[in-house]
Structure formats: C-alpha cells, structure tokens
From TrEMBL:
Name the record gives this protein: DUF4374 domain-containing protein
Pfam families: DUF4374 (PF14298)
Domain of life: Bacteria
Signal peptide: 1-23
UniProt keyword terms in alphabetical order: Signal
Length: 415
C-alpha cells in the first residue's frame, strides 16, 4: 500500500472522525468558554479538515473552509496545530485524542468570529482505539485490545466535557476461544452499542499487531448495553468475512428506516490466506437483533471486485470504495454507489482510480441525502475534495488541501 512508512500514523488519524450534530451551545469570543445560543442569530457553518503537513510543516492541523467546491485551504491562514491521532465530532465540537497511555482529549469549536479555538478543559482517558457517537450529547471510546485481552470502554459527556463512566470486558469470553475480540468500530443501534470485531491471538513478545487471525469466513458483532457498556451477546453470520479492520471505524450503519447494514471486504490475513467468502453487505432488520438470513448483497459479484471501505450517504445508498482488480484486497480503488434497497451498483464518474492509504474513507455526507464529499490523494500526491452526487453517480473536483501529506478527517461545524 502507498506510503507504508506513514500508514499506521495516517490511518490512525483518519479512523475516528464521525459526523457531528447541530450544537446546543455556541462559543464566545474567549477560548475555553461557551455561551447560550441566540435564537435571533443566523446559524453559520464551516467545513473542517484535519491534516498533516509536509516537510517543515509536518505537524497536525485543524483547518476550516467556507466553500469546498473551489479554491484551496492550508494551515498558513486559519489552522490550529494539535497533538492528536484521532478525532470525533459530537455536540458541534471536535474532540482531539492523543495516542498515548494518558489519552489526553482536547475539545475544539468555532467561535463567533469563525475561528477554531480550544473550547474547554482537557480530559485524561487512555489510549483509544475505537470511538463512536451515542445520542446527541455523548460518545464512547474503547481501548486497543490486541495484546491485552481486556476491552476497556469509557463514556464521554460531550456537553460537560467529562468522563461519565467506564467498563472492562474479558475479550476471550466474547469469542469463546483463546482468541481476543479486536474491535473495528463502535456504533449506536437503537439503545445498544454494536462493536464488530475480528478474532486475533497476539504473539507473546511481538509487536501489538503481530499475531494470528481467527476465521476469515465469518462476521461477528458484539452487542453491549448502554449506558452501562456491558457485554450482552454476540451475533454472527457466515456468508461473508469479518467487518472492517483494526481501527477502521467503518463497516456498520443503522439507517433512517431502522434497519442496520454491515459490509465486509472478505479480506485476508496478510499474505498468508484470503477469505473464501464473497465481499458483500448483510442486514439486521429493525428490532430483530440478529442478521437477516433472507438478505445478502454480493458486492463482489455486482462490482467485479472486493470492498475496500464504505460510508453511508442516505436514502439506502452507500459510497463504496472497491479495488480495481478482482480477487485482491490491495492496490488502487475506484468508487461506486451501492443501493441496498434495490441491490444495484452505480460507478462514480469523475473520481479517478487512486491508491488508498488510510483506515477509513475521509468523507462528509450533506443533509440532503444525496451528496457526499470525499477527500482523496491524486497520483501527484495532492489532496482534493470531490463532491459526489449519489443520484446519478457523478463527481466534481473541489477544494485543494494545500501542503498536505495526509488528510485524516473531514466534518462540518456550526457557529
């Protein structure tokens, strides 16, 4: 994969950005303070990117832009430097998380003048591997369980900027084997938390990612209670592979009608072996709590190649990155629109085939249910946003993220 020396860092930065809801708060002129919303004041918004610069500017920045259809943005005129590796947006706030044992979390908002500011106190958590929004006011983070075998979760109050609970789980009890359950994301489904996982046995004395995978031919999701964050059960399926990958933060989504869809690349264990199952999409009907055996969308057959990553757009349509070559889980990708209501695939024109170098797609879906904005690196090493119309599968190139070595987050904040 391209830029392998930077793969872990850039992937981690991209893994955890989830899309924010409108805020109940508004930032005042003074960094670190929050004031009430003025109902007479018009709501404004800015797009927000997180990226790492090149060369002498090789730091991580949060930058904003009013318009992503044209022009450029860089850290030289409106960027805030931040020491963090993952970012989640909740309650109209960007939470920047450091990847160390202390796991420092810092909140950032946009003030009345349209500038990004640090908007409250920092909170110490722990090294966070997965995170996801729950409701409008909370998010939950999970520790890196690949070598420890203990799954730690914490609940973060995004309004009062404080921890609101913790839990621990023996991950071998989830799998029922000698393998750990390694989480690949954290998603709200009804009043539960769904954590897809793969099975992994760490090699003693090896690096955290060195070890043996369990079956590549099954799908598993651990169901946890909320807000207690206690393990309840595992649901599984055997028609495709496991969902996502370590810290990919994608692979499952509950949509407007209450149904939940999960997708798998049916990937391999390094160069050793591949899943024998096709790459596809499975479904959990609203309120069922189990996979729907009557539904399977074989993306590999429909698109001619395996799924790399995916994100939801709206109205039953997903933006999917699939590999350009059949039967592989590496190399260049192309974009398609997968319609889970009609089981159809539409190629996206206007986005060139390109290398994929992160753990998740860098996207922001608009609220119209048909537009999704996607950031990619071209063959010249430059990053651009593409505005994709899911109704006709067309895309137009927009804003240039100037001087970027990697773009790892994309969202929108109001002020």
């Amino acid at each position: 994969m391209k830029k392998t020396t930077n793969f872990l860092i850039t992937g981690m930065l991209g893994m955890a950005v989830l899309l924010g809801a409108c805020s109940k708060n508004n930032t005042s002129d003074t960094p670190g303070t929050v004031g009430p919303v003025d109902p007479e004041k018009p709501v404004r918004s800015k797009y927000v990117f997180v990226y790492t610069g090149k060369g002498d500017a090789a730091a991580t920045y949060i930058v904003s832009a009013d318009d992503i259809t044209k022009g450029g943005v860089s850290s030289t005129n409106n960027g805030v430097e931040v020491d963090a590796w993952s970012f989640i947006v909740q309650n109209n706030t960007v939470f920047a998380q450091a990847y160390n044992e202390q796991g420092l979390v810092r909140p950032f908002r946009i003030n009345d003048q349209g500038k990004i500011i640090e908007a409250g106190r920092s909170v110490t958590t722990f090294r966070t591997g997965v995170s996801g929004k729950v409701g409008n006011d909370f998010w939950v983070g999970g520790g890196d369980p690949r070598s420890s075998g203990i799954g730690e979760l914490y609940r973060f109050d995004a309004v009062n900027l404080q921890l609101a609970g913790r839990s621990t789980t023996d991950l071998k009890k989830i799998t029922g084997t000698g393998f750990n359950a390694v989480w690949t994301g954290l998603f709200e489904v009804d009043n539960k938390m769904y954590l897809p996982y793969y099975k992994f046995k760490h090699t003693p004395g090896g690096r955290v990612y060195e070890g043996e995978y369990g079956s590549l031919d099954s799908t598993w999701v651990a169901v946890f209670s909320y807000p207690e964050m206690k393990y309840e059960k595992t649901i599984g399926d055997d028609r495709t592979g496991f969902i996502g990958d370590w810290s990919s933060q994608q692979g499952l989504k509950q949509i407007e009608n209450g149904d939940t869809y999960a997708w798998s690349g049916a990937s391999g264990d390094g160069d050793k072996r591949m899943s024998t199952k096709p790459s596809g999409i499975v479904r959990i009907k609203k309120g069922a709590g189990q996979f729907d055996k009557s539904y399977f969308f074989n993306i590999e057959a429909a698109a001619g190649s395996k799924i790399c990553r995916g994100e939801y757009i709206g109205k039953g349509k997903f933006l999917m990155a699939v590999y350009t070559s059949a039967g592989v889980t590496g190399g260049k990708i192309k974009m398609i629109i997968a319609d889970v209501f009609n089981n159809t695939v539409t190629p996206v024109t206007g986005v060139p085939a390109h290398e994929f170098g992160g753990f998740k797609l860098i996207v922001y879906p608009e609220t119209d249910g048909k537009t999704i904005n996607y950031v990619m690196e071209d063959d010249a090493g430059e990053y651009y946003a593409y505005i994709i119309n899911a109704e006709n599968g067309t895309a137009k190139r927009g804003i240039h993220i100037e001087g970027a070595a990697s773009v790892t987050a994309f969202s929108k904040l109001t002020y």
